[in-house]
Amino acid sequence: MDREYIRLPKTTIMPDSSRKKRTLNDDFWINLIHYHLLKFYREFNITELNDLIETEKVKPGRKHIEDLIKDYMKTWFENYDRRIFFEGIVVNLEPKVKYNQPGFYDIKFEHSDWINNDTLKLKYYSVECKNLNSYNPCINEYVFNASKKDGGVYRHFNGKYCQENNYGGMLGFVLAGDINKIKDALILKLKQPFDNSPEGDLIDDGIILDSIEGNNFTFNSKHRRLKDFFTLHHFLFKVYA
User: Fold this and answer.
1) Is the N or the C terminus of the chain less surrounded, counting Cβ atoms within 10 Å?
2) Residue 85 has pLDDT above 90, yes or no
């Protein structure tokens, strides 16, 4: 897979002092996190990850491909992205537990100096991950599954995710199929109102294609939420050789 075409955001040097870091706005941190996500996608060993996925597929019982890829990403950041270490960005995989049952996992990026200066609470950038292929059930799980009253995008508008932020990330691990066709199917699904409309509905012209450095596997969607707007940054990563 030729990934040299992947463009990384331009970044600026982080200040040395905590006082100056705490003056940096959300756009600075989001841009920096996007840099590291795209750096992973451009440089990770796709053959190695693909072998791990294929091994997982043949195991008996439930397959945990999504968790496997997220664990692989976290390990990659720890072992191969020295810049993220020196910048002090922490990458967490955080399980959420509900009713004593295993819940969903986010990749969460944090920094001790990324705070809300009004509340002094630590800020973060969370990325909801979903496996994707050309099948409609995968599209529904990514956006909204009406029968389950759930979905990756939907969780940002039903009170589960990012209630203190007006931004978030969605990462689709493309296991099979054409990324452009999958992207078109996701956007078509995003244009359908949720059952708690207008919460989560797209605003007019709310889809921005190639939104992150012109990479055609990225797009933004802008939604209504709590009398305000909420932006989701979408990444579609091909993870099969």
Assistant:
1) N
2) yes
Q: Within 10 Å of residue 126's Cβ, how many Cβ atoms?
A: 18
Query: Can you tell me the distance from the alpha carbon of 148 to that of 189, in angstroms, rounded to the nearest whole number?
Result: 16
Checking if the pLDDT of 202 tops 60, the result is: yes
More confident residue, 103 or 198: 198
Q: In angstroms, rounded to a whole number, what is the distance separating the alpha carbons of residues 104 and 35?
A: 25
- Bridge partners (DSSP) of residue 108 are 92, 126
76-110: b or e for each residue (b if 16 or more CB lie within 10 Å)?
A: bbeeebeebeebebebeeeeeeeeeeeebbbbebb
pTM of the entire predicted model: 0.94
- Please tell me the number of Cα atoms within 13 Å of 226 on its side-chain side: 11
